[in-house]
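Quick start: load a record and inspect it. Here is Meiotic recombination protein DMC1 homolog:
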Amino acid sequence: RKSVVRVTTGSQALDELLGGGIETSAITEAFGEFRSGKTQLAHTLCVSTQDINCGYFLFQLPTSMRGGNGKVAYIDTEGTFRPDRIVPIAERFGMDPGAVLDNIIYARAYTYEHQYNLLLGLAAKMSEEPFRLLIIDSIIALFRVDFSGRGELAERQQRLGQMLSRITKIAEEFNVAVYMTNQVIADPGGGMFVTDPKKPAGGHVLAHAVTVRLMFRKGKGEQRVCKVFDAPNLPEAEAVFQITPGGIAD
Ligand code: ADP
Ligand code: MG
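Running the structure step on this input writes:
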């Protein structure tokens, strides 16, 4: 394995839960209810991964191993990326917002095929320039739209599996940290769709592809709670973090 680095989430409690931050050469997934902070963490990672000396978050690893110091690729399927949000987050990390934004390659995907083609293009780019982070927010949304009919689930899962194996290959080949968000399942009940905040979408195909699976939920006010769901090397513990103007924090 290439030398794995960890990217700080901006919250020391969350980093500790993750064994130091989100890992390169691995896929970290966050699922959970609406407004639980999944996209805000994506924005924070866009900045923190570019920080070569985020010394003040250090508690475990030498400075040289913290922060990815590479480019960021952001695939947005829900239209929720806000470049304006990057500015105060960069300022909080003591970085130049313009320089940080210049290092983020952003693309909006409109169909699952478009999403797949964007990944192919990114893989080509990554062989030319150093990338440290790939964000996919969210992995599942377009599959749910494009395969919404009855009887389409098997094909959806097959296509999802193909996309995920491509993502795994990117993570490992380029030593990139992949952070993807996922939605929760909507169970039809009594003629209405009721979401279950504890059930990630994507079934076994997605469950098997991810390295670390995190469940987010809302706490009091701006507090959020993250629970490690399914990770072979991590205890099933929880961390409390906050969403602040400067991004994810303690
Ligand atoms: P989701 O899990 O649906 O992706 P988000 O990551 O978009 O959720 O989180 C949305 C929440 O983030 C909002 O409800 C708000 O509490 C918080 N938030 C968004 N922007 C800011 C900000 N500038 N300052 C503080 N909190 C913010
Ligand atoms: Mg979101």
